[in-house]
Amino acid sequence: MMKLFSPDRVIFEPKSLDYPLGRKIYSYFEGTSTEIIKAPIQKISSIIPGTTEGQKYASGKKTLVVAVKKSLKFDVCKPSADFGFSLVTGCPASCEYCYLYTTQSSKPYLRTYVNLEEIFDSVKKHIAQNNNRLTTFEVASAGDPLAIEHITGSLARTIEFFGALDNARLRVVTKFSNVEPLLGLKHNGRTRFRVSINSRYVIKNFEHNTASFDERIEAASKLAEAGYPIGFIVAPIMIYDCWKEEYLELLEKLRSRIDTGKSAEPVTFELIQHRFTPTAKKFILERFPNTSLDMDESKRTLKWGKFGRYKYVYPKEDAAEIKGYLTSLIEERFPDAKIEYFT
Fold first, then answer.
1. What are the domain boundaries of the chain?
2. What mean pLDDT is predicted for residues 171-183?
């Protein structure tokens, strides 16, 4: 059973305690075994212990920083949404292939932001700048807010905020299953949950400290039952012995558990093949020296990435096979679903 995240230490940026959410989080940890520290952002890295790469990584993953979000200008977030913003950056999970490794420090701590009202005001400003057209926002491109929702309650507040907006939609992606506090919210169908799902092999071997295969499907079932529009991110799709049989099992399980009739919106699928950069491979091998992740460059082809660096992806023939096979599985079981992209 998935354990809720419990940090070893919580570091409060001093100004974070000027906000109600900052004080709420402080109270949550007061009197517990979690170490509480007050320190400016500049000193955080020196506070987190560890000398080897592995120790720094492990300590970072057990550190929560409570901060004020200073930049309120949102980045464009294609193909997922018009804009992206963060309630949380970082994640307590330890996915061996994580695409964020090359942008995080050697101590990849979690950070949660307490100035929610200012973030919400910025959402409204971005809608106005978009001429009040329907505007979509991604809230989980840099971290998984559900992972620490039991501590912050931020995602619930954000869902209800979007539930009251006619011309905005929220998109959330998660690998966690603690969805119960979200089921009774007034979301008004304006938040789409996309559950990050994969074969049993990928989840078991590479997605540590996350919800299990069955827990994620059960969480998706509960969200669908509560009327949320539902989607699935199947990522990263990997080729290995028996991969076709395991992805068939995945789609069969989804078909048997997901009631698509509670929302007027179609189920969506986002399909992403496994990829890695040379820099990411270096980090992965330092942090997971015994990894069984297939990063043999001779079996891959180079693709130019939008962030100005090459990445290794499957050759065109393999990618076409993945796309064709997954597409057929989805179309047979979810004929009304929308496959948003394959990359």
1. 1-173, 175-274+314-343
2. 98
